[in-house]
Design brief:
The protein has about 725 residues and is of the alpha+beta class. Helix content is about 35%, strand content about 20%. The protein has 20 helices and 27 strands. The strands form 8 sheets. It has a 7-stranded mixed sheet, sandwiched between helices. Strands 12-13-16-15-14-17 form a 6-stranded antiparallel barrel. Strand 2 and strand 3 form a beta hairpin. The N terminus and C terminus are likely disordered.
Length: about 725
Amino acid sequence: MSNRRFPFSGSGNGERLNFYPNMKAIIAEKMSVGLDIARVVGATDKKDGYCTGNGYMVTWAMGHLLSLAMPGAYGYTKTCAEDLPMLPDPFRLIPRQVRTDKGMVTDLAAAKQLKVIDSVLAQCESIIVATDCAREGELIFRRIYSYLGYTKPFKRLWISSLTDEAIREGMANLRDGKDYDSLYAAADCRAKSDWLVGMNSSRALAIVSGSANNSIGRVQTPTLSMICARFKENRSFVSTPYWQLHLTLKQRDAHRMFFHTEEFKEKGTAEAAYKQITSGSLVTITKVERKKTLQQSPLLYDLTALQKDCNIHYDLTADRTLSIAQSLYEKKLISYPRTGSRHIPEDVMRHIPSLLEKIAVLPEFREYGQSFDLSDLNTRSVDGTKVTDHHALIVTGIVPEGLSEAESTVYTLIAGRMLESFSPPCEKELLVMECTCEGMGFRSRSSAIVKPGWRGVFARKEDRDKDEPDRDSGTAEFTEGEAVPVMGHGVAQKKTLPKPLYTEATLLGAMETCGKNIMDELAKEAIKDLGIGTPATRAAIITTLIKRDYISRSGKSIVPTEKGMYIYEAVKGMSVADVELTGSWEKALLQIEGHTLDAEAFMQSIRDYTCKVTDEILRLDFPAMQEKVFTCPKCKTGKIILRSKVAKCDRDGCGLLVFRRILNKELTDSHLEQLFSSGSTRLIKGFKGKKGVPFDAAITFDTEYNPVFSFPKAGNGKKR
């Protein structure tokens, strides 16, 4: 039996629980997954919060049911320098909290399901862990197991897809739960280090800035730092002009453009070179070189690579892509999406030919599939040594039905990438021609695809290699030693360009490599263990920065807000904004997973760092933020004060009050500024009603100055 210390009893309704010596409990991460597993193992009798039958009781969490307690639970009820740094020992777990207009309260649904899980575990002899096979999934179970005080043995169901076949195979090959102690240790360290750095840094910042509406995090602040630094570099860039001389040669109906081998820094020098060439000038072809090159097929997708391509090709955000991929996984159509590997092991490779055969007959790939050779597959993505917890993203072979447009898009991208990865390289011929004219050297480069190989799958221009010039230099071909008259020439003024602002795709790439600009795919693979965050968390980091009004989307670009730049300017150069330091922590967490670093040693380094960064912030001469002052629209005399949870009028008796959180949305400073300056926010997307139905609306005031929804007008001028 267990050594329980959790105060729940029975099923919550006072019934006496039985203990079944041979009964096995299975705990999944979500109800949908739990129901699938229950069906496969024969637990077909559905109850409230669990299923039972065939010797099993199957229950489920609802994501994270438990979280680390807030500072108040440890006695840190005031935000004061004397209490910093806060170093709880031990940390406490509490049932999941939800934010309401009255503050944080216990999530009743979470508390109820904890009771159900407790009753299920109490009745069973052993436990099978079926939460997601990754850090967070392990953390979800271990927290429940610890909080409820159980010591019963448990096994691990470790699978990479939710197909019936995968579940049956996994159930027949359960792994010892202790094999994943290091995975839990890494997850636990990650959560506690985020608490220590985030809570202490944010409170220290609140003290020196005089505002509680700012926060700093172990991962979010270095990410913000990258965005702000790039923005400043882009905006302060001074473009330098240069001039490019070119000439055009003709051969029958074809032409070719040659460019001067050097760029001119001065306009006068360029014009002088231009004048040297006349209508009677002859060109001597000095070099004609042809070279066959191979453009290797891309590796299979991990989550980050998928998110980048979805953003580039379909303008999907990282968060949206992850949500869609999770949905496809739960529909048993793809393997586990939160993977950081772009390779598959040899045993998975055995299934690939049959999967590719199914992909090749899909309408999107039927034409390419007619020439696809299943007997000679490219094995570049096959390397078991580069697979960590989960292999690369692949489809399961189940025929997709009833998918939304977005789901179909992402599924097609994953399936297409499989075809690409196992296809032969793209064969190209690179042509380089050089010539002289009036003592000056000119060059023309072009390439032609001989065999498209993998590039025939989608046939996208974006797949162009760096040796394929963007400009159309023409198709005429000449022989070495040939003399050709000049058909035309000219000088074009160009200018140097700044590094572009981050898009979500390029930001994900930068997070993967700690901001290092690495183009080579293999080099990226080698350094990505040093990245900021993990494939599973990077989307959430970007979303958090947007929710906190630190960054915003401007078209496809990601730019800092005034508030984000304010925080960046305050902490840049400090260790809390150090991108590579954060990257080294992510590597350390991987080492904990791999049993090469002691968890306590890592936590001691985090505690030492927390003390250091807290002291750094408290010593900060914080720049004064230019606050916007709004006259109260209700009383016309008071001033509006923006606080972390509310915005209110400072005049006694006025009573104008706006809570930041409305339904599931958090109003940003920008939203509140719009509301109080113009009487309405812009359209805010993604509110959710009581039944969970999403809708878009602006926030405005009614006649009594209570905030109300305002809905967009339909085309006929009437509100929808």
